[in-house]
Specification:
Blueprint (H helix, E strand, L loop, with lengths): L1 E5 L3 H13 L3 E5 L2 H7 L10 E5 L7 H11 L4 E4 L5 H6 L1
Parallel strand pairs: 1-2, 1-3, 3-4
């Protein structure tokens, strides 16, 4: 299954990619919200089965990116974050 990993921290992305690849996922790494949205365009290859989305991206908030993803596709989105506040956990 193709998986889009949206994570700006290269160390975190490398670790997640390695684990996911060992479990059979074909991982595409996007480092920003805009890069993720470009990867989800119909002419970017076969569709992704799932998106792992970091909330703390450099160019825009992960919640905004998720909203834009929802307007384009029904691909499931799993939000990944280090945020611990209740608002972020409930909103996500």
């Amino acid at each position: 299954m193709r998986l889009l990993l949206v994570e700006d921290d290269n160390h975190v992305a490398a670790a997640l990619s390695a684990v996911l690849a060992r479990h059979g996922f074909e991982v595409t790494h996007a480092r920003s919200g805009e890069e993720a949205l470009r990867a989800l365009l119909p002419d970017s290859g076969p569709p992704f089965g799932v998106v792992l989305l970091d909330l703390g991206l450099p160019d825009q908030d992960g919640f905004q990116v998720c909203g834009r993803i929802r307007k384009r596709t029904t691909t499931p989105v799993i939000m990944v974050t280090a945020r611990a506040d209740v608002r972020s956990r409930i909103h996500g």
